[in-house]
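chain below, 316 aa
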Amino acid sequence: MIAEAVMRPELFRLFDVGVPSYFVLLLSGFLFATALGVLWARRIGLNPDVIVDLGLAMLLAGVVGARLLHVLVDGYFWDYVHLCTDPARVDWPLDRAECISSAYDGVWDGARAVCHPKTRDCFAWAKFWAGGLTYYGGLLGATAAAVLLLRRDKFPFWKAADMAGFAVPMGLAFGRMGCLLAGCCFGAMTRLPWGLSFPPRSPASEEQAKDHLIASMRSWSLPVHPTQIYESAASLAIAAFCMFWLLPRKRYDGQVFAASLALYAAARFAVEILRRDARGGMLGLSTSQWIGIGLLVTAVIIHVLRAPRPRRVSAP
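prediction:
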């Protein structure tokens, strides 16, 4: 039996302003990850205030990096450009009734049977709260902020990196459940019993309507792999392995971070095979898969450079 996903893009309203589920879960993940980092710092005798500052800086820089990478590589770059210069070159996969409804307020192009935005929006690329963030962009932005802040506070960088090795995937597990509520990051069609069917006007319905797999985005999507849950479960497993098994046994500072980086890159590469939302990429691999390959190489370099060398025993 195929389950029907319950989407809730808007978790609640505050002063008549909708609060997106994704950002509530994302923020919850960062808070939980920061709390883990504070407990870790206290346990090993380091300043926990640095971790609080680090969490805030990484959150802000991570959102900026995640949004910029989405705009540049996820396949929407020219849509954002045309939204500012010529909205008639942006196509929305809507029928005529949906296009001219108050929900979209678009312009119907009868000749091509597509909908266009009515007004220009030169700041659509910056509206991160409307959706469109990439984890790897967030990782790169957060890492840059961490390097600058840790250097300023003279905090041991590789010790902090090991903390991030278990705290970041723990926080990511929350964020991916926010993706599930928002309906983004969905997978390929499947007949497996745990496949999910997303409601009308979901990103999955929109994509399948565009590919002519369903009649309209007003229909429920065909069952798809719940790739959001796959990645959330993988992130939890990586966090647990790094925190409970590897951290007490590490042979050098940076080992936990390198292992976390490699494990997540491998898990994400596999999940990307099943993803069917806009991915960007080249040569048959998505942008995230190419970045994952780079991170695997980075993890190997960290291990080679930082792992202790075996001591040579002189002959008697």
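The longest strand covers residues 10-14. Strands lie at 3-4, 10-14, 17-20, 107-109, 114-116, 196-197, 281-282, 285-286.
thats it, cya
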